[in-house]
Amino acid sequence: MRKRILLVSLLVSVVAIVLLAVLFTDMFYRNTVSLTEQQLKVYMNVFEEEYSPSEAVDSQFAQTLSSELGGARVTVLLRDGSLICDSDIDASAAENHADREEVREALESGEGFASRRSDSVNEQLIYYCKAYDGTILTESGPAEGFLVRLSVASPSQFSVFADALPTLLWFLLADVLICLLVAWAATAFVLRPVEKLTQEAATGAGKEVSTNYAELQPIAKMMNDMNADISEKVAKMKEDRRLEKLILNSMEHGIVIFRDPSDVILINKTAARLLDYETNEPIPCFMSDGEIAQIIQTGESSSVYRKIDGRDYNFRFTFNEKSSVLLITDVTESMAAARSKNDFIANVTHEMNTPLTSIRGFAELIEAGALPPERTKGVAKTIIKQSDRLANLIRSIINFSAIDSDELPDYEVDLTELVREAIAPFEPKLSQKKIALKLDIAGGVKVMSRRERLLEIFNNLVSNGIRYNKEGGTLAVTLTGGENPSLAVSDTGIGLSEEDKTRIFDRFYTVDKSHNGAGGGFGLGLAIVKKLCKRAGWKLSVESALGKGTTFRIEFYPPERR
């Protein structure tokens, strides 16, 4: 009887232990699958944050994402089950996956799980597949709707049971009561903390998990490290995107990336302002501007110029297969420089051509002996005068260019004395045009500069005041002292239009073309004045009314005292 009881007890104990071992194996496997499924969902969130509809999805994309997800296998499929790319195998040689369990579930309900052995990688894998709407860019072009499948290696139930077999044999050798007690203790004190830890990890939304059990602390640490790593990568990606937006919106140039006139992928603030763009709306000029619409339609890289709010912009279009780029550059200054260059060429050509023609004509007359002796002296004077004119033009150009390389130190200059001395040589010209001179010169005005610089500025301003003044007009020179010294030269001449005011300081620009070159003027005087004032940090301003006269004023004190 005892033997029977013992045998029955042993049989019951063995069966119970084996059943418990099988049960524990199944529970552990299910928990592992559950944890893996949660992990795969977290991985899928990483894909959703990294994926951009404008980015082509290929094997390189799958391998990069797999590396970021710790080696998880990444597969992207079309809705018909054909593979777009796979991080572990060649997608072109793979068979159709439409019959896979996880794929069918994803197509039916949006997502699906499956656990099986993969023949392609020869491993037991847990799969998580999720379906997405919208267009995806593939190597062969865009496609509507796609599925993303993530998978990681997982032990099978048999391998889990095989690993537990030595422990099971040890239990069979122990007392049945102790085995039952240990089984009960394992159920009560081991699985509950594991389940709690699993639940905490699944519902903690990335928060740190903890446990009081030393045996589970390595698992908790692993989960925390994994969550921290994922959170760090997600935060880094968000920061990178923030920096990209900051850089784009800080650019002075406008940039637009688009697929077609109504599909704008990216546009920065500068471009949106210039193109009057509203979110989710077509760019107006892409539709209304015939030349721009023609460029977009032909798809050939080219440039056009447009004026917006009084400024000139270059629109540079670049096209490729998947998207197009528009770069908008402010070329107002460069076009103004081009106009100034054209004016320079026109003025210099005119200034040089007239004296050269005169010199050559008289020289040919002298050579041919066709000039009466009594006119030789007058012709010689004319040749000398025209030669001096050419020399003055060349000297003015050299003087203008030499300002940039002038590195001599400044010293204190008595501006009062300089103005009184410099005005005297102009008295014959003033008398010739019957211009009244009014001087209001403060005493003891001193400026840190150099005498030749101040003399150049004063002579140019006074020369302009005489040249463009009216017959019988007035020229006023006012010098004020104190902490804020200033010099003003006013005339009652032809004055300046609004257009002239914006260009009066340009090189070789002259206001009255009838005076072009007359009296030795080449349009460089005010350009030299502006350059010297800018170099010294002085403020140069002009006040004028057309037909009423002009006042040029220089404030010699530094900007911080204005």
> CATH homologous superfamily of the largest domain?
PAS domain
**CATH topological fold name of the largest domain:** Beta-Lactamase
What distance lies between the first and last C-alpha atoms, to the nearest angstrom? 117 Å
What portion of residues belong to β-strands?
A: 15-25%
Look at the structure and give the CATH class of the largest domain.
Alpha Beta
Tally of structural domains: 4
Shape: elongated
Biggest sheet statistics = 5 strands, antiparallel
Helix count, DSSP H or I runs of 4 or more residues:
17
Q: What share of the residues lie within helices?
A: 40-55%
At CATH level 2, the architecture of the largest domain is 2-Layer Sandwich
Strand order of the largest sheet: 2-1-5-4-3
Low-confidence stretches: 514-520
Radius of gyration (CA) equals: 44 Å
Mean pLDDT comes to 78
Q: Provide the structure class.
A: alpha+beta
Could you characterize what this model shows?
- The protein is elongated and about 155 Å long.
- 51% of the residues lie in helices and 22% in strands.
- Helix 1 packs antiparallel against helix 4.
- The protein folds into four domains: 178 residues, PAS domain (Beta-Lactamase); 80 residues, 2-Layer Sandwich (Beta-Lactamase), CATH 3.30.450; 70 residues, Helix Hairpins (Orthogonal Bundle), CATH 1.10.287; 154 residues, Heat Shock Protein 90.
- With 562 residues, the chain is α+β, with helices and mostly antiparallel strands.
- The protein is built from 17 helices and 17 strands.
- The strands form four sheets. A five-stranded antiparallel β-sheet has the order 2-1-5-4-3. Strands 7-6-10-9-8 form a five-stranded antiparallel β-sheet, sandwiched between helices.
